[in-house]
Amino acid sequence: MNDRELIWEAYLQINEVSQNYIDEVKEAVANNELPFNNIFGNKLRIWIPVSGTQTYKEMMEVIKSIPDFDRFDSKTREVVQKREVEAKYGGGVRERRINLGRAISSIKMPEDKKKKFLDWFATYNDSIEDMEKLKDYAIVISRSPIDILRMSDVGSITSCHSETGSYFSCAIQEAKTGGPVAFLVKKSDLDNLGEDEFQDEEIFEDPSRHIKGIVALSRIRIRRYIDKENDEEIAVPEVRVYGNKNLSGFYNSLKDFFMNKQRGLDLELMKKGFKDKTLLRKGGTYTDSSDSHLFNKLFGSEEFVGNLQHDEEDSEEEIVDRATQFEEELRGFHNRYASDIKNFSIGYNVDGDDDYTYYSAYASLTIDPDEYGLELTDDYFEDIESYTLRSIKTYKEGVKYYDRIPSGYKNDDNFRKIKKFIDTLTSMDSFFEDDMGSLYYGRDGNIYVQVGFGEDDSNTSHDTDDYHSFCNKISSLDDEADKLKKLYIKALRISGYIKLDEDEEIMDEEEFADSLKNLSYEDNTIGFNDAQYILSINRNLDDTTNTGFDENELKLRKLNSLLPKLVSGFLKRYLNKFYKKRVVSRDDNQLKFKDFYESTMNENDKELEEYGISDVSAYVMGRKEFDRYNLSATFGFDVDYLGKDRVDVIKFLDNHIDDIKNYLSYVARDIYDIEDNITMGLRKTYGRI
Predict the structure, then answer these.
(1) What is the b/e burial string over 448-479, where b = at least 16 CB atoms within 10 angstroms of the residue's CB?
(2) Residues 455, 460, 465, 470, CA torsion sign
(3) 625-674 pLDDT, tens per residue?
(4) pLDDT tens sequence across 434-481
(5) b/e string for 207-236 if b means 16 or more Cβ within 10 A?
(6) How far apart are CA 426 and CA 420, in angstroms?
(7) β-strand 279-281 against 309-310: which pairing, if any?
(8) What are the distances in angstroms from CA 212 to CA 188, 197, 215, 591?
(9) Would you say 109 and 38 are in contact if contact means Cβ atoms under 8 Å apart?
(10) 11-47 burial, b for 16+ CB within 10 Å, e for fewer?
(11) Is 512 in contact with 594 (CB distance < 8 Å)?
(12) Which alpha helices (DSSP H) does 87-134 contain, by range?
């Protein structure tokens, strides 16, 4: 048998297995009534719009009647008007923006319709930007046993319920006795199906069995529960979404639909059934969420606790222990997404019991003061143990002492010191503002920066997908670990938690900024990378009259891609050659151009960071002015701390700024291929770039 025949035989075997499972499920339900007739009637499938999209489309048509309507900006939630301005007032077109709520109120329409739109605006105000995408989608809710069996091989959806997954037996049982499945699909795909086709045995594409159909983008299971006392069926949507999770509104649409279709559901009766265990869960034993979590989400409650019993009649498949299920899923995510993380410690723990299973996750960045040759002050350990991070972040001046500082805090002085440290830290990088969950000082002398996980940094979750997202976040942070450590140490210095030598004593920032002649101190407020010390330069480049604007723009992009690295190397070589601590830095005389000869070409052993300089940035903007191309450059850098030794370095650069300007000009001339006496002089001094 040749390779082609072997492949074809394997394909036939896989196809036969899949068809066998479908035949098994069809036979099992052949003489049984499908569940939830009260919702489906005599149909296999129903479809519903994503909540809010119909009203959104209707409203978008209405606001077009506003005078001078140009467009609706879904990002800012504003109606944009454009008006022609009379010549006597300057001419041109003037743009005006109106908040959507105010725009709706201004339109003449029946009051009930206006109320409908305003109610919609109040409900969906925070998700308006998504509506533009969601209006093109619909939700198919299916109780077709074949759709349920194939819940994890429709479109690009995969999970442990796929045929090759570890819990495919649960999918089989779910198809026989469980609840429906909801699929998010493109509305245009549904529009191509007639009602009869929509109720066919299969409507979803299955290439392995040569079945054509539509494709689902994501899906949510609908759990089926039975009240033993009256045989009433209860449909409760899962909260976990498989497939594309980037489109909001899927779960809430299902929640609204099933609460509306099951108006007889009473919170108190459900709580009693939960407590007395008269409610049974049908279908497969695999669960994405605890029963209490699903009921709490459906009712907007926190009063359901634990899990319900699984119907023993639905026991053809092996019983799945929830803790084991969590462990397997989390291990899979960890091995796939966390194995390459080097600088952060990351892991998880599964906890709870059969009634209530959850897991905790953790990740921390370790900072060893000895690695940086630092000695912490004695009060650092006491302060970091005494104050909770959340209280420090939410502290506000002007509030009574006993309100702003919890009773466990020792005194104002200590609190203000740790508050200054946290404020300094959180202003440096969004990681410390948004992701840092806690700090602690270990007995091993190391500092541990804990990353928050879960709602309100509780470090716990019931959804294993959260750990997947957590791993991805830590993986991206891992690349910035060195930068984060240095920022942390910088905040320690500024706040007085590091013992300093005389040369390292921190100088007042405002006082130092006033002493600079050419550089300006920006205190990280301008958004120019991480630079603090900024220099703005304007230089006109001659002999560019024959260069087209588009070509100039291409050269400008090339220049900006090279500039930060080139300038970093230049500063390193310049300081290595000319900077003499506390001697040259106090000389106000600018170095002569000839004295700089070969300074950028020599390799030296001292790195730029040893001068305390990092995050060197350089960016150039250009525009054509008459017969010349004008370049405006911005150059900047950051310093690890403002000790006296660092102050000397900055002042030295400030006093010798002309060489930095000349170098930037030279690089620009080289990129723009400008050959004149100035360029030749620069090349003679600096050598070739």
Answers:
(1) bbbbbbbeebebbbbbbbbbbebbebbbebbe
(2) positive
(3) 666 666 677 788 888 777 777 888 888 888 888 888 888 888 877 777 77
(4) 888 778 787 788 888 888 887 665 678 877 778 888 998 999 889 888
(5) eeeeeeebebbbbbbbbbbbeeeeebbbbb
(6) 10
(7) parallel
(8) 16, 12, 9, 78
(9) no
(10) eeeeeeebeebbeebeebbeeeeebbeebbeebbbbb
(11) no
(12) 100-106, 111-124, 128-134
Q: How far apart are CA 59 and CA 408, in angstroms?
A: 54
Identity of the amino acid at 390: R
With tokens 């970093």, the residue in question is 568
Q: List alpha helices for 387-528, DSSP H.
A: 389-394, 401-404, 412-428, 430, 465-478, 481-495, 509-515
**Cα angle value 421/422/423 (rounded, 5°):** 95
Secondary structure class of 360 (helix, strand, coil): strand
SS3 408: coil
Per-residue confidence (pLDDT) for residue 600, from 0 to 100: 39
Rounded (5°) CA angle 36-182-170:
80
> What residue type is 188 in one-letter code?
S
Task: Give per-residue pLDDT as tens, 562-593.
Answer: 888 888 888 888 888 778 644 333 344 444 44
Dihedral over alpha carbons 137, 140, 141, 142 (to 10 degrees): -160
> How many other β-carbons are positioned within 10 Å of the β-carbon of residue 418?
23
**42: helix, coil or strand?**
coil
Measure the CA–CA gap between 440 and 449, rounded to whole angstroms. Answer: 7
For Cα atoms 630, 635, 636, give the angle at the middle one, nearest 5 degrees: 160
Q: Measured between alpha carbons, how far is 617 from 664 in angstroms, rounded to an integer?
A: 12
Q: With H, G, I as helix, E, B as strand and everything else as coil, classify residue 624.
A: strand
Written as six digits, the tokens of 116 are 């409908």
State the amino acid at position 71 in one-letter form.
R
Helix axes 549-578, 644-655, angle to 10 degrees: 130
| Nearest residue to 28 (alpha-carbon basis) of 231, 209, 175 | 175
User: pTM of the prediction?
Assistant: 0.53
- CA–chain centroid gap for 293, Å, is 25
Element (H, E) at 665: helix 657-671
Terminal-residue alpha carbon distance, the chain:
64
Q: Specify the residue for token string 């030279």.
A: 666
The full DSSP string for 519-572 is -EE-TT-S-STT--EEEEEEEEE-S-TTS-HHHHHHHHHHHHHHHHHHHHHHHH
For residue 262 the two structure tokens come to 């099951």
Token pair for 488: 């942390």
Taking the CA of residue 678 as centre, how many other CA atoms within 13 Å lie in the half-sphere pointing to its CB?
A: 15
Amino acid at 97: R
DSSP at 311: P
Q: Residue 223 in 3-state DSSP? A: strand
Cβ atoms 224, 184 nearer than 8 A? no
d(CA 419, CA 397): 11
Between CA 217 and CA 50 the distance in angstroms is 14
Assign 157 to helix, strand or coil. Answer: coil
Tokens standing for residue 364: 């921390």
The label of the residue with tokens 């048998």 reads: 1
Residue where the block lists tokens 């299920």: 325
How does pLDDT run across 263-279, given as a tens digit for each residue?
888 889 888 888 888 89
